[in-house]
Fold this protein.
Amino acid sequence: MSRALPAALAVAALLLAAPGVAAAQDEPDTLTPEGPATVSSVWRGAVTTEGRGPEVLTGVRVTVGPGGRGGPIRLRVTSGLDPDRATQLGPWVDLPAEPGVYAFPAPALRWDYRGGVIAIDQQLGGHAIVRTSACTPERGQHGDVCQLVSLDVFHDLADGDSGAGTDTAPPERRAGQQLAVTGVFTGDRDRDRVPDAEDRTDLRLTATRTFAADGSSTIRATIANVGPRTADLPILATDAGLRREAWSPACRTEEPTPGLGGSFPLGVQAWDTVSWCPLDALAPGASVTLAGALSSAMAYERVTVNASGDGEDLTPADNLVRLAAQSPVEGRPAVVLRTPGRQRIGRHGLRVAVQTRQAGTLRVTVRIGALRTARVVGVGTGSHRRTLTFRPRLKGTRARTATITARLTARDGTVTRTSSRMAVSR
């Protein structure tokens, strides 16, 4: 069964270095066969189960030895990870006859060395690009290079046929031989066939923290894709101890890779304390806003929020927001309404409790259906709590829900507004 070329070459190299195994690069059978053909390296030995991280094939290096002929060749590559692309053919290129190492581009394919196949189509043949190892049958099935590797030769293959595997028996099989061809691979974490070094998105992060009267706080973070490419793997991260289920909307469930795009600046030492929230892909111009409630322990502490994507960000300066630590007094809202869920309007009227901590003008409005009443009072510096009484007349309206709005205009011109609803009855 065909296996990946890099694994075969690695084992072949070890065998060549072992006693009793000699290279025969200067012998005639180090040349590919004459005439049009497809030549493919085959590996039948063991492979590792863990593999490497996601990769994409970007090219090949061909080592040409002495005594061969130049001529047109093209790559025929197959990856079991890319079934939708099947076998891909590269363009015809001229392989020189002069000895040396030559690099050629390859069709971009998601790659796994355990199942990928790199073959070469030739028109003239006689190319000195074959490595031959002496057979060592005394080492048994798993130690004899001639039982582990071979060079399979095919003729008249269809464009979509890899010429690999046990389904197609080759007309010619050269035991102990391999193509002197190695693949060039690079990381492709989002598996979009674009190398991570080129897959650069431009994410922009904005984040704020709001405080509630009970001492808790909430982070609201917006990630916008302002770049030209889709961000396939956007990730929001914080050092605030937020669990994945604490975010709304929900994070994706898969485990992200720390420092995915190399743009996460909290440092390796912080990875154990960082919470990650992988998100769905963001098209150019799209954005997503998330909210996460902080625990009371972190409500007023310094918090760092970061956005990262597939590769290094085009503008990393706008991927990080540091929310400064605040004292509980500083973090409290300028105005807070404290109203019960239901209140009866009796002879004492409707009571609304308001707490303020900034000097300015406070306007509190109560609406019940079409009825509207308001009070305006001045408030001083410091934390103040007062109860305002309203006497709305419910006669003539069927509405039984009151909407209370408090609007504090501070002396510096800042406006803070909050509202609340409660059921009312006579």
About this structure: The chain has three domains: 5-187, 203-329, 333-425. The first strand starts at residue 37 and ends at 43. The helical segments are 5-17, 145-148, 328-331.
